[in-house]
Design goal:
31% strand, 21% helix, Nitrilase/N-carbamoyl-D-aminoacid amidohydrolase, 5 helices, alpha+beta, six-stranded mixed beta sheet
């Protein structure tokens, strides 16, 4: 029998009320499970607005411990066990005083805490001042063996780097899940991000699915979130999607609406395509890639 697994992506908008955001997310997770999802992934930093639009020390108060015993992780674990789903949740981690990460936890279908991934690539662009808040991850690129699939997790800015996706595939990941917060920036009330940026965002990730012959699911937030000054902010473009190993879209959410996207993935297709095409692993010339360990080749 085919190994069919339903992946659920929770695309939602966020307001100023942390508890309201959290409650809405949990309701959406329950609805996803009711609709047949086996694996459910929440968007990047789902408990709050995307606070990295500004540099503000007070916002470190949003951070929390992220480990097996932390209250949020325990609640998420209980929910995963109750619903029998694998759950991926992106959180603002306080590791120690003055040391913070952008992390995603992964809970198995029995509620077991499998571990976390810390965002490796940290942007520092207008409206995305993440280097002020997050230290780069130091856990590498783990692959989690869950009840339903072998899962690799990346977070937002990681999605542009083919090396990260490749390493996860080399460790056996069948599905790459990518919680995201990305959109078109506004200044003075005018959109300043290139119109085609969202298309490039989708294309590069579909390329990861093809190059590694695996499934890839990216879940984005949606709606306008104001920045620190009038007329500034980000229009998060939604468009959460799931791509198959041929790069075909098997499910896509809207650009403007909150949505629970459920997409079936056939895990047997991965072996079929990796057998048909030899480029994901067999024909790689690993002896010729030494330059990849350098920042730039003059």
């Amino acid at each position: 029998m085919a190994r069919i697994v339903n992946v659920g992506l929770i695309q939602m908008s966020c307001g100023d009320d942390i508890q309201a955001n959290y409650g809405k997310a949990m309701d959406n997770v329950r609805q996803a499970a009711d609709q047949g999802a086996h694996i459910v992934c929440l968007q990047e930093l789902f408990k709050s607005r995307y606070f990295c639009q500004t540099v503000d020390s007070d916002l470190f108060k949003l951070a929390e411990p992220v480990d097996q015993s932390s209250p949020t992780v325990q609640q998420l674990s209980e929910l995963a066990a109750e619903l029998g789903i694998v759950l991926i949740a992106s959180l603002f981690e306080k590791r120690a005083s003055g040391l913070y990460h952008n992390a995603s936890v992964l809970l198995d279908a029995d509620g077991c805490y499998l571990g976390k991934y810390r965002k490796m690539h940290i942007p520092d662009d207008p409206g995305y001042y993440e280097k002020f808040y997050f230290a780069p991850g130091d856990l590498g690129y783990p692959v989690f063996r869950t009840k339903y699939a072998r899962i690799g997790v990346l977070i937002c800015w990681d999605q542009w780097f083919p090396e990260a996706a490749r390493l996860l595939a080399m460790k056996g990941a069948e599905i790459l899940l990518i919680p995201t917060a990305i959109g078109h920036r506004r200044e003075g009330g005018e959109q300043i991000t290139d119109e085609g940026y969202d298309r490039g965002w989708e294309i590069v990730q579909r390329g990861h699915a093809v190059a590694n012959a695996c499934y890839l699911a990216a879940v984005n937030r949606v709606g306008f979130e104001p920045g620190p000054d009038p007329g500034e902010g980000i229009d998060f473009w939604g468009q959460s999607f799931v791509a198959d190993p041929d790069g075909l879209i098997v499910g896509r959410a809207s650009a403007e609406q909150e949505e629970i996207l459920i997409a079936p993935v056939d895990l047997d297709l991965i072996d079929e395509i990796r057998t048909r095409w030899s480029f994901p692993f067999r024909d790689r010339r690993v002896d010729s890639y030494g330059g990849l360990t350098k920042l730039y080749l003059d």
